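new request in #modeling-help
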Amino acid sequence: MKPDSRFNTLVKSTKDVNFTLFGEVVTAPKGSTLAAAILSHSGDAFRQTETGALRSAFCMMGVCFECLVEVNGNPNTQSCMILVEDKMVVKRQVGLRQIGICEND
Amino acid sequence: MTDNQPEITIVGGGVVGLSIAVGLLQSGHKVIVLDGNDNDARASFGNFGLVWGQGKGWDFAPYAKLTADAIDAWQNFSDNLNELSGLDVSLDQKGGFEFFTDPEEFKSFIGMLEIQKGHSGNRFSFETLSGDELRKQIPGIGSKVVGATFSQLDGHVNPLRFLRALQRSVQALGGKIRSNTIVKKTESNKNGGFSLTLANGTLISTEKVILCAGLGSMQLANQLAFKTNIRPEKGELLITEKLGSELPFLSSTIRQVDEGGVQIGGTNADVGMNDSETLSDMVDLARHAVDVYPALSNVRVLRAWGALRVMTPDGYPVYAQSEECPGAYLITCHSGVTLASLHASILSDWIDDNIKTPNLEAFNEARFKI
């Protein structure tokens, strides 16, 4: 946990998972949501809006869409609605997501 | 004018009522708009925002012409709203597609557009593209699409911002919008004018009354001896997350709002006043969108809703003045967004019955008489 996180984790777990958060391998208690794991690790923003503003998790119950991150390549994932998993790769959601063009389907 | 004695009272504060209010206010009339509440069906909160011509009036020439007039008038209307409200409704008339996955439906729609073109002369034109031509023109269109029609006149607006721009424009012009107001009774006075009784007991006395409350018009329309039946037709739609990528097309079923989200719609169901969404329709909508543009397959759907279209028996607009109660008007249509540009302009000439009055005879109630 970084000193600038103002959150203490309440999950009592004997097991930890390791995941990659914004390029850094970090540890979180198994059973915590990804949003809780990010909050308790650092005070860093989860995402950057289209206009450049920084945002972090707010409602923690799937409503506000502020906790969006990219999880294992999936953009705009609500981190408060999933549990943190071993080897997860979590990146900051920057701006709106893009879609590609399917040349063949 | 006191609040309870307006010159003209518009019952219905949706897209239709507010557009008419803008036109009447700009012609110098004193207008009050009575808006209902969120328990009402409120088609103006659930619609798709198309400014659309394809298919409109193919079997009724006056409607094809009216639609062509409305599309022509939209740029001016949008500029006018921008000036009055300070809001840009994001009018985008870049042309629109109708996509088909069924060859028979494609063929029959082309036939309809040929007839529509016949009604409208050089004011409506369209192109027909095979699936392969389309995929060459727009990379990423799915292999299940057998063809499309394209009209360069079709377009869209941001529907919710449009509603807000109308509300602000009415207020900027000195019109009053009274919300949470339910009209229980309308009576024609012996010596002219009308008395409206509100649910809270307030009495409003007015020279002219215009009913444009969508599905809420029916009861009041009966009291004023109108003959039109209005029925609900449910449509469902999906809203995706906002995308940073621009969708390379506009269609009547798949469109990207200027803010980035994609609306997917187009179902219709005859289920009375029930506007709840159904899983099977949502699945069909999602499948259609992915068939047309497979890159949408991993895009998240954030919201889905049903809303009720306001349908006359034949689907065409009604512009009617009551024969028994002159000064009472019933105005109802399905395409309240497309036709708004006319509702805010020539309709006030029609209500004034002045020298510029348009000929709207084809849209009166005579066609529903038994």
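bot summary: Chain A touches chain B through 15 residues (CB under 8 Å).
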